[in-house]
Design a protein that fits this description.
This protein has 321 residues and is α/β, with parallel strands linked by helices. Helix content is 50%, strand content 15%. It has eleven helices and ten strands. Strands 2-3-4-5-6-7-8-9 form an eight-stranded parallel β-barrel, surrounded by six helices. The chain has a two-stranded antiparallel sheet with strand order 1-10.
Length: 321
């Protein structure tokens, strides 16, 4: 009987002790939760363009999209932006294979970087570019991509792209035409693409990417003229060679995707010293919650430079409330 009483007392005391510990732990946990509620991290999700792994260096088979997906996932990105020119095929079976692979890797396919241009006096050339752009929108739809980068195109009077970069993106108009002619061509062409964008649920993001989009004023002139929720802005941090922060501020309210350039090892055409905490603050002020997509355009080894770029950009686009 004495053994039985002692055993019951031991169990009771042990239970009370355990309950006491549980209450203490619960109290500490509750206190910690209250602290965490007062200081909570917030951040934009960070993606990477497949361009970062290729940069048009050699044949595109040097950096297949499939490899880019796996590398981006291992590096810790949240999403990936496809460069259309880097893809091996436009067949639906290939597109669905990429979509399946990205989902399994834990990545959003969050952007589609395409090329087109509408600055042609010839109506036939503009019509061909419109049809190409409509086809690209449909590819984005097949891939489940919510936004697609759009270009104005350029006059082409400065020769090669290297020549254009040497002249800081400035080039004269075609003889006999004005910039007003170019803006009309671009606006009319994009307006014809809007119904397909709306049908497919793909927001077109006009990028500050040379041509008539060389300045924030040029980009916004087109976006405001089209005046559609299906045409917004892709803000590239590396494509303003003067007053970059002021111009980003102008475009920030209509920005649907941020492309963040980095130049480790020195840039291919030029190197900009971009203050990413300042850039992040510009977009925080307009409550931008979308993706930031890294475009590495330096000469360093991408496998080393891209993770460093991720660390820099993620730190800048993380804040505490």
């Amino acid at each position: 009987m004495e053994y039985s009483n002692n055993r019951r007392n031991f169990i009771r005391n042990s239970t009370l002790t355990a309950l006491g510990l549980g209450l203490t732990t619960s109290h500490v946990s509750s206190s910690e939760n209250n602290i965490n509620k007062n200081v909570r991290p917030r951040r934009n999700r960070i993606g990477v363009s497949t361009y970062s792994f290729w940069q048009f260096n050699g044949p595109k088979s040097n950096a297949p999209i499939e490899d880019c997906i796996e590398k981006a996932a291992r590096m810790g990105f949240d999403g990936i932006e496809f460069l259309l020119r880097q893809m091996q095929s436009e067949e639906n079976s290939y597109l669905q294979k990429l979509k399946r692979q990205a989902f399994h890797a834990g990545l959003d396919i969050m952007g589609f970087s395409t090329h087109q241009g509408f600055i042609f006096p010839e109506k036939e050339k503009r019509n061909a570019e419109i049809q190409k752009t409509i086809h690209q929108i449909e590819l984005a739809y097949q891939l489940g991509i919510p936004t697609m980068r759009l270009n104005t195109g350029r006059w082409g009077t400065s020769g090669s792209f290297d020549d254009l970069m040497a002249n800081k993106g400035i080039e004269p108009t075609l003889e006999g035409y004005t910039e007003d002619d170019g803006f009309k061509w671009v606006i009319d062409a994009i307006e014809r693409c809007i119904p397909t964008a709306e049908k497919c649920g793909v927001v077109l993001g006009l990028e500050n990417h040379w041509g008539l989009g060389r300045t924030a004023e040029g980009v916004l002139k087109i976006v405001n003229a089209v005046n559609s929720p299906w045409l917004q802005v892709t803000s590239d941090t590396g494509n303003f060679l003067e007053n970059q922060y002021e111009q980003l501020e102008l475009m920030a309210p209509k920005t649907f995707l941020v492309q963040a350039k980095t130049y480790l090892g020195g840039g291919k055409w030029y190197t900009l010293d971009i203050d990413y905490p300042r850039v992040a603050e510009i977009f925080r002020k307009v409550n931008y919650k979308g993706y930031v997509s890294i475009e590495f355009e330096g000469n360093a080894d991408p496998m080393e430079a891209i993770p460093k770029s991720l660390e820099t950009v993620r730190d800048a686009f993380t804040w505490y409330e």
